[in-house]
Amino acid sequence: MPTDERLSDDQLQRIANDLRDNWHTGREVDFEEAIAFHESLPASKQFATVLESADQPLLQPRAGVPCLEEQIDLLRYLQDEGGADLLPTTIDSYTRDNEYEKAEEGLAASRGSDENELNGFPAVNHGVEDCRRLIRALDAPVEVRHGTPDARLLAMVTLAGGFQSFEGGPISYNIPYTKRHDLATTIEHWQFVDRLCGAYTERGVTINREPFGPLTGTLVPPSIAIAVMLVEGELAATQGVRSLTLGYGQVGNLVQDVAALRALRKLGNEYLRDEVTVTTVFHEWMGGFPPDEARANGVISLGGATAAVAQPDKVITKSAQEFQGVPTKEANAAGLRTTRQLIDMMIEQDIDLGGIEEEQALIERETRALMDAIYEAGDGDVAQGVINAFDSGALDVPFAPSDAAKGAVLPARDDDGRVRIFEFADLALPDDIKEIHAARLGERAETEGRDQSFRMVADDVDAISDGKLIGRPTGDNGPAGGASDAD
Amino acid sequence: MPRTVILGVIGSDAHVVGITILEQALSAAGFEVINLGVQTSQDEFVSAAKSHDAEAVLVSSLYGHARQDCEGLHDELDAAGLDVLTYVGGNLAVGQSDFEETQATFRQMGFDRVFDAETDPEEAIEMLREDLQLTTTEAEQIRVDG
Fold this sequence. Notes:
The complex is a heterodimer.
Chain A: H1 9-19, H2 31-39, H3 47-52, E1 58-60, H4 68-80, E2 87-90, H5 93-96, H6 100-111, H7 123-137, E3 142-145, H8 152-160, E4 165-167, H9 183-202, E5 208-210, H10 222-238, E6 243-249, H11 254-271, E7 277-283, H12 293-310, E8 314-316, H13 329-346, H14 356-377, H15 382-392, E9 410-413, E10 419-423, H16 431-448, H17 454-463
Parallel strand pairs in A: 1-8, 2-3, 3-4, 4-5, 5-6, 6-7, 7-8
Antiparallel strand pairs in A: 9-10
Helix pairs in contact in A: 4-7, 4-13, 7-8, 8-9, 9-10, 10-11, 10-14, 11-12, 11-14, 12-13, 14-15
Chain B: E1 4-9, H1 17-28, E2 32-35, H2 42-51, E3 56-61, H3 66-70, H4 73-79, E4 85-90, H5 99-108, E5 113-116, H6 121-131
Parallel strand pairs in B: 1-2, 1-3, 3-4, 4-5
């Protein structure tokens, strides 16, 4: 079982040598020469520099297509027509499964046709030099965004290729994404990725790391998400990462979202060692979107408004075509501009919302309780602790497909639309906190004239795509008295 | 005695929300639920149905590859000597295809009932009761909320 200790230079070298032969582009990776390439980049392409010096939230979309020229065109469009401050390159699903043969076939098929045969950019197959062409062709810094449990070769190739930010982590790219990867193995794999980022950082090339905050994207209680961010942050910091962007996904209740982002920043600075620069990223709603694009724009706008109040360092935007899947470049750019409009109109307003401090205090107390349980489960070691805590259910993520988590915790919204916990299972929260959640859900049950049940959970999962926030009974077979506004 | 049903997401699909809600709904309705989770193979469905002496196999798919993933499932069930009720539900085809056509395709493949992603758990459970000829008194924990 891995412990939270820094990999030695020998270990880093040995693992890198073993990975080099997994795909031929691995052999192009030369660390010294990669440092020289990064040093040749202007400050405007240095991810950490741009992000950490910004004075208002920076905007970043998601985007990835198979072929290099099309990816450059797409990112240029998002930069020029969408006004993206930071650019992404989203990696395809075969690469995420380390299936480089299949990615190669998909890439070849995409080159010969107008159709995209992959759902992202297969960076390992493209190799170091093509990644650098991409970096050279754009004006903004570029991040690798993916969902890869074993991202070691992807990190070697893309970091050598000039990318300066790398999304993911051993929990956030395991628990929500896959069934059969055990946590001990993904932690070992990400210790390598983080150590590699640390090695660049020590040579003056700061690599930004971004744990994936939204997790399963489905009504994740803020304290659970924040605890995972702190654990991944600590694991990364141990390996020498010095620029960490902790993430959080919008739940749609303005007060709770602002409180959660403030708690995330505060606890990030408190838990992570002083040498680490902590920034935050807010993901616009990651759950199901309304099919109606006009309504989808409403969801995006609420995200922009929340960002204007909470002022995270970065916002990952969505498009109004989210319901249908991968958006056109026009819709993607429009999502950036919609968000920008809200932020620019609201950011200078002095907006005083009631209840933020109280909500933030609750989130912080819950997060501390979860972190205490994690340390305890590992006798002080966060790597062992997080493995044991997921195993016992002391830490859990709702709707987790992974066998490594119990997935027994269930969330539901309270009468105000804040995400509370309906089923705690073995989650390590003290009784007084459980009582607060139960009382809030009790208020909702009373309003709706029904018992607290999984039915609320099911209704809440669909609520935003159905045009609401809270999954109230619609009235066709339920009692009257729910504040439902059926359309 | 509670009736046992097998539940799972077939193929390499990792969409877990739907079956989590179904599992809760089925358990609350008095069924014994064996939830195989996401990324479940045909073999796993068949062996679970056999070892748990299940009366129904409920297959979920949301990523559009259901037809490929379910091809041959009924042959495997037959080969294992299992005569169970089979349901399939979710986003069964890529894009905006006509649901009636999709329904016909999956009925042809041997599924007893075919549901789209908009189906309420209660509706599927109602049909399950009907198909298993269960009366409401048999599953006494039933409580219809909302």
